[in-house]
Amino acid sequence: MNIPADLLYAQTDEWAKVDGNTATVGITDYAQDQLSDVVFIEFLVAVGDTVQKGQQIATVESVKAAADINAPVSGTVTAINEALPQSPELINKDPFGQAWMVRIEMSEPAETRQLMNADGYAKYCEERSH
Amino acid sequence: MFVPHTDAEREEMLKAIGVERIEDLFTDVPEDYRFPYLGLPGGLTEMEIMAELQEIAAANSSTREMACFLGAGAYNHYIPAAVDAIIRRGEFLTAYTPYQPEVSQGTLQAIFEYQSMIAALTGMEVSNASHYDGATAAAEAVVMAYHHFRGKRGKVVLSPGVHPQYRAVIRTYMQGYAGFQIAGDHEPGCDPLSGPETLLPMIDANTSLVLVQYPDFFGRLYDYTALAQAAHEAGALLAVAVNPLSLGLLKPPGEFGADIVVGEGQSLGIPLSFGGPYLGLFATRKEYVRRLAGRLVGETVDNAGRRAYVLTLTAREQHIRREKATSNICTNQGLIALTATVYMSLLGKHGLRQVAELCYHKAHYAAEKINAIPGFSVCMDRPFFHEFVVCCPMPASRLNDRLIDHGIIGGYDLQQDYPALENRMLIAVTEMNTRDEIDHLAEALSEVSHA
Questions:
Q1: What SS3 string covers B238-256?
Q2: Structure confidence by residue, pLDDT tens digits, B99-127
Q3: How far is A57 from chain B (nearest CA, A)?
Q4: CB distance from B150 to chain A under 8 Å?
Q5: Is B27 helix (H, G, I), strand (E, B) or coil?
Q6: B186: phi > 0 → left, psi -120 to 50 → alpha, else beta; which?
Q7: Greater pLDDT, B208 or B33
Q8: pLDDT per residue over B131-176, tens digit each?
Q9: Burial call B174-190: b when 16+ CB within 10 Å, e when fewer
C-alpha cells in the first residue's frame, strides 16, 4: 500500500497536501482499495464555498459501497477537480495524483496538527486490517 | 409458537426500557382490542369455512354482474386469460426480487423488459423496477426531488388535480421533513377545477418539484409544456402522474418536459381486487438515475460474452447507502410488475392504442348521452380521456345508492374529497362498458333523478 511521506492523513481516509496556506485533498490508496472499483463521484461543494473540518464535501460510489468524503481542514474551496466525475476510475488508478478532489484555502491552518503523518496513518491502517 | 427469548432475557429487556410488564407496552391500544379478548368464534372445518366465506362473498356486488362506471384511479379493464396463465408459472410466481438476484435471470429479464416498456411508454430514459402503487410512487418523486436539491428547496407545488389519495400519502411521507411546505392544493379559495396556470405563481426558487396528473383526477388533459418551462426556469423539476394505459394514445410526458413520470399501473392488466396489490410506476431522465429509489435491472454480458441481467447502481440503495439513500424502500412489486409486462407484451403497441381508443370513444359517447339528460350536464371545459365530471341535480352518493338497484356501480362522488364540488360525479368508461350499458346508465340516471 502506498502512503506518501509528504502528506497528512485524516481518520476518515482523506489525505491533505499542504502547500503554504493551501491544502489539496483526496482519498488514500487504502481507501480506494477498500472501496474497490469507483464508478461515481459527486461534489457537494462548489468553488467559493466555505467548509468546516469534517464536513462532507463529496460522495463516492464504488460497485459495492458508497462513501462520504470529508474536508480534513476548514477553509474556502478554491478548486475542484472537474475531470473526476467524467473519469471516476482515476480514484483507483492514481489516488494521490490525478485524482485530487478539492483545494482548500485554509482558515485554521493549525488544524493540520490534528492530522496524522505517514507513519501514524500506516499504523492506523494496519490496526484496522486485523 | 417458537419464541426465542427466555423469561430472564425478557425481564432484562423490560428493565432496560423501564417498564414492568409486557402489557405496559400496549397501553396505547384500547383494552377491548387487546389479546385475548378478540372474541373469535370456535374453529370450523375447511368445508364449513368455505361455505361461510362464500355466503359472505355472495353479499358483494362485483364488476362481473354490475355495469361499472367507477374509476377515480382504479379501472375495470379486460384482462386476457393468458396474463394469469403466464404469471402463475412457478418460475415467476414470487412477490419479491430474489436475494441472490443474478441467479434468477428470468425474473431479472422480466423486470428489465418491464423497465424498457415503461420508459418507452412514458418517454423517459430510465424506469425503476416499480413501487407499491401510484400513491407511493408519487411520494417517492417528492422525496427524490427533495434530495436532488440536498434539502435546500423545501417546497413542492401540488396540483389539486392530483389524486386526493396520492396527495394524502405525500403528506404522510413528508411529515418528518422539518419545514417542508406543500403548496397548491389547499390554498384558501382555491378552485379544485382550476388548471395548471394557477400553479405558475407558486413556483419559486425554493420549489424542488411541481407535481401534476395526466389525465388529471377529473379526467382532463392539459399540455403541461408551459408549466414544465416555468418549473425549469425556477430550477425546479416537473413530475407527472399518469395513467399508463392512456399513453397508448396520448403524447408521453417526456415530450412536454417532464423530469419524472410516476403512475398507477393497475390499468395494465391488474385486477381491481378491492384496491390492491397495485403497481407504482416510476421513470425519470438518465441524469437523475442516482437519485432514483428502488431496484434497477441492467443488461450486461457474462464472462463468456453472453447476455445477462444484473441489479445495477445498487450503491444508491438503502442496503448500501443506509440513512443517506434517497428512499428506505428497496423492494419492488415483482409479481404485479410482471403482470403489467405480460399484459403490455400481449397487447403490443397497437393493442394498447386500441384499448385506449375504445376507452376514449366510449367515454365521449357516454358524456354525450348524459349531457342530454335534463338536469345533468357534463362540466368539462377541457379535452378528456375516459373520465369526466358530471354536474348532477342531487348528491352523487344518493344517485349511486339508487343506481345499484339498476345493476349499475355509479361514478365517484367528488364531494367526499372536494367539499366545493357538490353534486358532482366523476364517471369512468372503459372498453368493458358496452353501448347497452352506457344507454342503460343514461336511462337509469334520468329515472332515479326524477323519482
A1: EEEEECHHHHHCCCCHHHH
A2: 778 888 988 999 999 999 999 999 999 99
A3: 12
A4: yes
A5: coil
A6: alpha
A7: B208
A8: 999 999 999 999 999 999 988 999 999 999 999 999 999 999 999 9
A9: beeeeebebbbbeeeee
Q: Which residues of B touch A62 (CB under 8 A)?
A: 315
Listed in sequence order, the residues at least 6 apart from B132 whose beta carbon sits closer than 8 Å to its beta carbon are: B277, B278, B280, B329, B333
Strands B207-214, B237-242: parallel, antiparallel or unpaired by DSSP?
A: parallel
Residue pair B385/B245 in contact by the 8 Å Cβ criterion:
no
Strand (E) or helix (H) holding B280: strand B280-284
pLDDT digits (tens, 9 = 90+) for A16-49: 999 999 999 999 999 999 999 999 999 999 999 9
Buried b (16+ CB within 10 A) or exposed e, B213-246: bbbbbbbbebebeebbebbeebebbbbbbbbbbb
Q: Which amino acid is at B229?
A: Q
User: Is-contact B157 B224, C-beta < 8 A?
Assistant: no
Kindly state the helix (H) or strand (E) to which residue B140 belongs, with its residue range. helix B134-148
| Residue extents of the structural domains in chain B | 67-79+350-450, 81-343
Spatial separation of the C-alpha atoms in residues B324 and A69, rounded to whole Å: 13
Give residue-wise pLDDT tens across range A95-123.
Answer: 999 999 999 999 999 999 999 999 999 99
- Across-strand partners of B211? B158, B239
Looking at domain B67-79+350-450, its CATH architecture is Alpha-Beta Complex (3.90)
Nearest alpha carbon to residue A25 among A62, A61, A59, A69: A69
Q: Answer yes or no: is pLDDT of B318 > 70.
A: no
- State the architecture of A8-124 in CATH terms: Beta Barrel (2.40)
Chain A: residues touching B (Cβ < 8 Å): 39-40, 42, 44, 59, 61-66, 68
In terms of Cβ atoms closer than 10 Å to its own Cβ (0-12, 13-18, 19+), residue B304 is: exposed
Interface pTM, i.e. ipTM: 0.72
Cβ count within 10 A of residue B43: 7
The answer to which of B9-13, B126-130, B186-190 has the lowest mean pLDDT is B186-190
How far is the alpha carbon of B321 from chain A, nearest alpha carbon, in Å?
A: 6
pTM here?
A: 0.86
Instruction: Please judge whether B324 and A65 are an interchain contact, meaning their C-beta atoms are less than 8 angstroms apart.
Output: no
- Reply yes or no on domain B81-343 having CATH 3.90.1150.10: no
